[in-house]
Model the fold of this input.
Amino acid sequence: MRNSHRVKMERELTQEAFGALLMHFDPSPQRAVEKFEQMRSQLVTFFECRGCPLASDLTDATIDRVARRILEGENIPSAALAPYFYGVARNVFREYLRLPDRKHISIDEARFTEHPSEQPREALRRLHDKVALELKLECLEDCLKVLPIDMQGAMISYYEGEQSIKINNRQRLASSMGISVGNLRIRVHRAREALEKCVIVCLEGQQTNETELLQ
Amino acid sequence: MEHQSIEEGVLLRYLLGEMGEDEQEQIERSYFTDAALFEELRMVEHDLIDNYVRNGLSALQREQFERHFLCSPERYKRVEVAEILFEFGTRNSAKKGLSLVKEPVVQPTSPRFPSAWLAIAASFLMLIGSAWLLIDRARLKSEITNLTLQRDEMERSQTDLQHQLAERDRVNQQLARDLDKAADTTANEKNDQRGTTDLSTRVAAFVLMSGFSRGEAQSQKLHIAPSVEVLRLRILLVKDDHKKYTAVINDVDGQSPWRGAGLIAASSRSGRTVEFKLPASLLHDRDYVLTLKGVTATGSEDTIDEYPFSILRR
Done:
């Protein structure tokens, strides 16, 4: 079912094609990988904001397509790479809209409002199952330890308290770190991006364990 | 690339799907080439998720969040992480709150110095004040819980009403189909539809059929009671290929008493439909044609089908 509504993806992105693509981002391999990751994130955001449940798949399709064109000799200046990616992404999106069976998605891929017997609030209320919540908090605590020490405390303090207490906390936290509240917000945001990835991987690992136990 | 400053409110509208195609494209072109703007967008996204988790969104924003923003498994996972962070922060706050209550500041007592008595009195007042604040906070939390329950109850009632409306629509369509069948088998019988009228709301609902599916010479007759104030018209789509639709009603003189734009197809038990309302006073006892058009990605309109009908006021 999932394959039937994918845009044609050519999943054979060879190492050669990927290397050629990275070189177009930046001559330095490390910077190239950073820019590639950013572009991937921008593409996922684009497809999500356009309401696509298969944002990751469409992102991969876009990257594959651009990589293939570069390998075939298309000359794309570095400064024009981002707009080029955006143009290809829009084409991929248009093709996705024209797919006849895109409306038929599996229950696992369906948005909350498309679940026949589930509402978003009900799905989120499941988090309050005590056992599951404790396991999830364990994931968070483990992932917090991966952050730099100064950011561990900052992340905990940043999300404490309600409304005015939270605001005062953040002002005090920024002062103690010798930075502005705006700068604090940026640092916490970057730490949270890393924390999200770690927690999601940890949660997926827990789900795999539960599935194995049930089999 | 020079950093573009875009207001948070604009980025929020983008995330909640409140923008037209041109505005979306403008934002997207900007953040694809401006890393700082993209980071700003991601921060606004985090704030939006946090507000959703804390029930800090308006009812409309919450609906938009659940309908548009929560479109992918990845976004659901980010909301899940926000829930965990919120729970973690709440527990830490609770621990600190408890520790403050357990450790009140007590000044040494020495009757020789009046200032000591003042200090004792001040400490006592602080203790009373803290206790009062805790009690008041508990009361407020209880009120919030009650209000939340009331709101949930209202939402459930709204959902029930929507189900009832959907059921009524289904009955309307079945009536229309039955009337159609009866009309087609009788040579002299005229094609007409009385629709359903909700006397309490003065709304008359009709299902329009394509002129081609009913024979070119045939036109639906919509009988409208004098008390009807609003017409609700529904069109069953053969294919739903457009994000938005436009409906235009023209009379035989080419005048256009009504035009509806930005219509979005919805799912019903009969399939994908487009539905809209218009004041009954706009239409008189004469013939009309409703033209349904699909809006393309470039903003142009493709004619999809035409629905001839006549208004007859009983």
User: Anything to note?
Assistant: Residues 181-214 of chain A form the longest helix (34 residues). Chain A is about 70% helix and 0% strand. The CA atoms of residues 26 and 32 of chain A lie 5 Å apart.
